[in-house]
Write a structure and sequence with these properties.
The chain has 279 residues and is mostly beta strands. It has one helix and 23 strands. The radius of gyration is 25 Å and the shape is globular. About 6% of the residues have low confidence.
Length: 279
Amino acid sequence: MKIRWETERGWTEFKSPYVLKRNDGLGVGTVVMNMERSPFQDGAFLTGTYFEPRYVEFEIIILGDNSQQAERRRQLLKVFNPKLEGTLTVTDDNNNNYTITGRAEEIVFPSEVGDSTSPSHQVALISIVAPDPFFKGQEYTLILGAFIGGWQFPFKFPLQWGTMAKFRDINNDGDAPAPLFIELVGELQNVLIENQTTGEKIHLDVLIEDGERIEIDTEAKTVIKIDNLGNRTNAFPFLTIDSTLFNLAVGENTINYSADVEGSSARVIIAYKKRYIGI
């Protein structure tokens, strides 16, 4: 397992001279179960389950003489600054990367007598808090509205024209619903994106000119229109009343796309990351 922490002020990997001794909090986080009960009822009714923010702790050993230890402590303090948002990346033994965003809550250099410090090493205790408790896997991207198939070289007769990709089947085999980042590239009008598995849909009653695009973030719940000069405006009011900024459900999802007007450069680009409750 490889572990890396990165902020705008730099990055650190837990390998020599920062040797990982212990970690805690990479598995399933703290779960809260809400329950209700009536008078004289045996047991209770489960009304909801949710995860608390994730707390991750590391104990590392800083190698080096006293001068090197001082320099390396300073480097740790720089990148584990609680004022800075950072990304924790964990790479498992199969070379899969999982990331989570958070902030350093505490970094301590114990000085008590014992194994915590010596002329050759110094122990550091680091605590990170992640408000969103889910680890995210790699990013997947798919394009709807692009041509699939078509001519092959050398030509073979009869020729086959390409077909428009209007739907895709997506298997979300993560542990939780996955938010979507959708980019609508004009020219498009009256765009409908529907998850046929759940019945949820995103319907925008607006004209997107050639050179314009709309970005939809179903996690942040934002819809932004960007014109050909780069000006950004709120496009949320163009959503129809029956629209939902949906996530991919766990399991199979069939995503369908349609529009009343489609220019030659029109595209619908959907990106997502699967989410996991632990590593």
